[in-house]
Write a structure and sequence with these properties.
mainly alpha, elongated, DUF2325 domain-containing protein
Amino acid sequence: MPGWEMKIIEAEARHLLALAAEDAELRADLRALAQAILASTEEPPPGAVPAEGSHPNPAPAFPDADEAPAVLSERPDEPEPLHELTLGQSRRAIVERHPPSGEAISSALDEGPVLGEIEARCRLKAEAALLAADRLRRVRDGDDPKGEKTPEDPEVAEWADRFADAFYFMEAGDSSPTPDIALLDDLGGSIETLAEASALAAGSRDRRGAIERSLHLVAEAQSAVRSALQRLQAPDDPDQLAAYEWVRDAAARHRVFIKRHLRADDLADPARWPDLLARIEAQGGGDPQALRHRPRIERLRRHLEAIRRNGDADQDWQAVVSSVDEMVAEGLPPSSKDLRDLLLPVVDDLPDRDDLPEGFRLVLREIDRYLASRPSPTVEPVAPEPTAEVLEARRLLGGRSVVLIGGMCRPEAREALRDALGLGELIWVETKEHQAVSTFEPAIARPEVALVLLAIRWSSHAFGEVRRYCDLHGKPLVRLPGGYSPNQVAAQIIDQCGERLSGG
């Protein structure tokens, strides 16, 4: 039996045991079923041959059906309600239809371990899908995949291999144009969204309205994962299946009608995962898991307020970086809305440093992903008056091409930089974890490129590694320690290589 089938059986067994804790009749049924299972799996004595058509140690799986009318006679004479799904419930639980109390809601959704396991594994798989996409892009660009950084977690490496293999098999058996590696990006985003939806559902216990809303979001998230896997022609994922079973079971227990995304012919679009992620975050109103980190988050807020007041508070920044890294290490998701809302207003003021710890880098990556997925404003912002540095950079670079090596491409920031500096083209090279620096060389080597910008805030690649290729092709390299605003970028360009660009 495949491992994922056993996981589903184990999850159903845990659910039945939880129901049996308060139902003597169901406990009796389970004991009878257990006896039947033990009898059917018992090894026969050596040499014993069971009679044809007989079964060793027969035992009834359930009490006689004759008992059922006695239970049904307890029902009042009233119109027959619509039947709910009853798999795994005792006969008495089916008959008694009282509205669930607050305690019942809590116990019915007291599946923190199940949702927590789904969330944890999905976060690993999301990272693995992005790693597989990076690996495939390097292969297509002609780079040696052996030069990639090996992920520290062996499970991430294993899942990355599986996703890459699925893509190779699809590519080999498909006579249509070359498949788009973005399929793996969508898979990673959808799996990460399922992790967020699971965290939201786990934090929605004891709140009836929140439970109903979270069920719809988990249903859509698991559907997007299934659709992404089908587009890759990959096998079903056990955590997607577990989430599907959990949603159906919870919806039946709470009498919640879920209209969409629970049928094979009604799958969610995995390419729309940023929109779904935004709705999950809006529903959460803050990360439920952040509640246990609340005291540390409040201290973080005070340090950030001190930074806004003082500007260059190095000690406060050190406390911020350390605190964020520790919270992530203790289980707070890097995509936590609480962390993001606190850091967004000041992230461009983060001091320039190459030794940011892994947890803080993961938070920066999620902030970058959030900024890249936000829709463009419907009203064009008023452009600030160009500074002297902007005017000088425009004079030096007007009509020429510039490469920007950073995180995820932000169309709004790209257009603002191109317009402010009068560039002929701004080539934005997106970067991801474990990506080989050699993948940047084709863009750097283009003859029309006059300058290379490295946004170190959003890139995990060292300045020296990129400089090697810039020196090889005679291109000046500018380190961007802050954000993408034209004023900030122009100031760094003039300060670091203004003389070289002007021929000095």
